[in-house]
Design goal:
Low-confidence stretches of chain B: none
Strand order of the largest sheet of chain B: 6-7-8-3-9-10
Largest sheet of chain A: none
Strand content of chain A: under 5%
Largest sheet of chain B: 6 strands, mixed
Largest interface: A-B, 23 and 28 residues
Shape of chain A: globular
Number of helices of chain B: 16
Oligomer: heterodimer
Mean pLDDT of chain B: 87
Distance between the termini of chain B: 49 Å
Shape of chain B: globular
Amino acid sequence: MITPNKLLPIISPLIAITLSLLVGAILILLAGANPIVAYTTLFQESLSTYFGLGNTLTKMTPLLFTSLGVLVSLRAGQFNIGGEGQIYLGALGSSLIGLYIQGIPALIHIPLALLMGFIFGAFWGLIPGYLKAIKGVNEVITTLLLNYIAINLISYLVQNPLKAPAAPSPYSPLIAKTAQLPIILPGSLAHGGIILALITAGILWVVLVRSPLGYQINVVGFNPIAARYAKISVERTIMLVMGLGGGLAGLAGACEVMGLKYRLFEQVSPGYGFDAIAIAFLSRGNVLGIVLTSLFFAALRSGANVMQRSTSVPSTVVYAIQGLTVLFIAIALALEYRGKEIKN
Amino acid sequence: MIYLQLENITKHFNSFIANDKINLTIESGKIHGILGENGAGKTTLMNILSGFYQPDSGNIYLEGKRVKINSPRAAIKLGIGMIYQHFMLVPQLTVTENIILGTESKWHLNLQKKQQEITNLSQLYQLEINPNAKVKDLPVGTQQRVEILKVLYRGAKLLILDEPTAVLAPQEVTSLITILRQLALRGNTIIFISHKLAEVINLCDTVTVLRHGQAVATINSKNTTTHELAELMVGRKLSLNLQKSPASLGKLVLSVENLQVTDDRGINAVHNISFQLREGEIFGIAGVDGNGQRELADAIAGLQPIKAGKIDCSSVGTKIGYIPEDRQKMGLVLQFNVGENLILRSFQKFPFCHQFLLQKQAIKNHAQVAMQAFDIRTNCADIQVSQLSGGNQQKVVLARELAGEPRLIIAMQPTRGLDVGATELVHQKLLAERGRGAAILYISTELEEVIAISDRIAVMYKGKFMDILDPEKTTVEEIGLLMGGGKKS
């Protein structure tokens, strides 16, 4: 049976998105363009043209992976703000496999590089997980700060030891062909990462909703005292979700290297890790919601430039729309919370 | 003179009728009790009076004038003061600061003057209090006094107290009753919401009984008995005395020797406690809250490390049921539904988990059976347990902890906050377990209950057993004295 309670996580993001598009329309009007034309250009480009769709799927890959990572941690009540840094570490892990292991078949090389991306990201998530579970250090602060360490670490590596010989700007040499993900829409940028991301989302749905592990994670997230009472180890669960969340974000970084750039470069992520937080909150812990919201955010990002070119609306309007969606969902959550308070 | 009159007050929540044409008349200077089971509509009615809800229909008259109470602020202006079961105080602030909170709108705050005002007010009503004390340092009974002073400071003439004795020790209850009588003598009108029958009869002038949202009776409390009130509340005949068969003791199940346990802050909470518990026996532990009962129970359940001594319950294995003190904080995951809560301690086991996946159908069937067996009332099995009444929540915990024929059951305050019907069910279920041969540790602050259900009673005070008594040969007075640390004369 579908109760209103179950529909709410789907409906309220839709309302938030609609409202933010409406307010965005005002911004477009202020910029001196027709909002209908601007939006049509934006979504037509990003969703219905072959190349544009490829572009959208490419951007959706890291967003989906990273927001799944945020979601896993969130289910156990942990705020993982460190997706950005975990992406960078994942990119490093898979680059190392792609650069220094040569001459093995792709069938082994690709999984190995992905695995190393996962492990590096997981390591970056486990540090704050350990600190939270064992030492009680607030994970928001540690994950946030670890972002800067990761970004600067990669920056140092591509400028010095990993720099390609005679490269004009800081990036590494190309990774081995056998470690590169195949293109799924020939002629576009879309690579196999999106399929991996969607499969991962499916597996995660099963784990979170149908498995005892998902149940355990939920208990820890909703009521850690009841978890202790049921002899569930809260500490181990926290470390597990933080590691898993980091690993998923790490896969985002791995796919950026293996599917898009084929090398480690300075700006692995233009803030996917932060968008992912918005996406996870917008979808309110619902895996299907995360898939759709990642698609929406990716479409916004990939259509923004075309919109700027053809209607002269600055592409930054898109970021305003993203921000507005987060704002509206926060308002929806606050209203719901108040509704519950009054009922009780 | 009639102070408050309610006329046909009706309130719906969707299709559920919380208050159904309630009529009520309260004279000024009187103490009026409102009795009812959980979910009978007491809280809704009081929330209408304090301005949180608007009635769908019906009128409210104060001193003969028709009033509309649109908001809590409006209620305060009309002289209606609400004292909640869970105090609305800021622990870090002083008594004075708490009392004046939200009433001052001037730029300059003269705390000294306010302190004097509050001292005067407390002397006027004979509510002794130190206005400079921090609220967190005060005992619960005194905190309640601060709450009472807070509404008096705001000029309340009608005081509504929601389950005010639920959190108090027996001595504090006596002092609260004195305070309320004083207030009534000074012309204040008091509404006393409770489900403790004896207290209501003792304190109130008149009593209104609510059942399923309707006011089923208003009685002069001198002309009634606890038995009559209880039957009015549940709407059927009750046997207040537990039918208890003589204990048939079996093998030794639990043996505790010189046990010492520290609390979360590392302070000794249990000092050198020793006792033994056999199959088919209920061992009662009476005591005021916070005398080490929780630490003792947690230690036996294996949730708290032992500092010294020994707990031997090796024959029990995992067959242990633990009904924790606080069902909402510890016993339940409020966001889960009944079925999900029932598997909290067995979610990794067959049949709930099979081939690495949770079995929805098995969980659902299990829930259905338990809801039948434990009379868990909800119109939708999928509903979050946070939406259930306290009694039904406790039945969920009970159903889970009594499942799988436990050999040892630790029941910590299992009837706290429950109405007569639910209390009866808890006791019957525990007695049935005893009959089956389970060993039961029954920890409670309700003396009558402990005496009625236990085969032996220990009285706990400051982490020690003051004495172990035979319930047949003891009295409430004797246990009350030991609970306060007094010695047998």
